[in-house]
Amino acid sequence: MNMNESLSSLYAEMKDYNKALEFYKKAMDVKFALFNEKMDKEIISKTLNFEFEKKDAIAKKELERQKIVRNGFIIGTIIFLVLAVIIFISLRKTAAAKRKSDELLLNILPEAAALELKKTGHCAPKTFSMVTVMLADIKDFTKISEKVSAELLVNELNYCFSAFDDIMERHHIEKIKTVGDAYMCAGGLPTLNYTHAFDMLSAAIEIKDFILNRKKEKIAKGEMAFEIRIGIHTGPVVAGIVGTNKFSYDIWGDTVNIAARMEQSCQPGHINISHTTYDLVKDKFDCIHRGKVHAKNKGEIDMYFVS
Length: 307
Description:
The chain is of the alpha+beta class and about 300 residues long. About 60% of the residues lie in helices and about 20% in strands. It has eight helices and eight strands; from the N terminus they run αααβααββαββαβαββ. Helix 1 (about 5-15) runs antiparallel to helix 2 (about 15-110) and helix 5 runs antiparallel to helix 6 (about 195-220).
């Protein structure tokens, strides 16, 4: 109770109702003023709290948004890195597969033919006016196969032919094919050169020496050894790829037939060459003229042993 209320009560007891009403009004004014002040304070307090909560909510939302953006960026970065790694591995695998495919193709075909096949989808036959062809085969291979297991025979053949491959590569001669115990190669193709006859004779001598040394090793072990016949002829051929499945690079022409006759008319452990080849190498290799030797379907042909 404030002072105005006390005075109002006092004047009411004194029956001075006008004064009592006057001070009662003043007391009410004070109460209203205090009430309004209290309400204003509460309103201001609530307003401030609301604004603070609003700002806090906005700040939390902003933090949440930044967190989502940051997490999204991190997740996006991780996904990008994962995809980059997957693409990188895929590209490496593709490159490795392509490299392996190219190596396999080059193992089957000459480089020029392989490039043409990859570029155009086919390899057109080409005529070469002068190449040197060599055929070599094992003497009495059929008889040997009857006395030795197939596995041992194939292993020995693989060992010898692999050595021949190395010799051909060193002398830049193109291996054409193997058929059973026969080994065919040609110099001067698919890239033309003028040393093919000399290169072929050099390689043939290495092959002959390899087989002789291998024979000594096998005999020392009490094992059956190979003996080889080598025939060489120089002339024109047609070369190209035949077939679409398991295709191979091959050569055709009478030159191949005469080289085969040189090999068939040869003696084991010797190199038998035609007169055409002899004319190209006679200044660099010692050759012994055998005279005219009969060749199947070819009649009498001049042949030479390379000594």
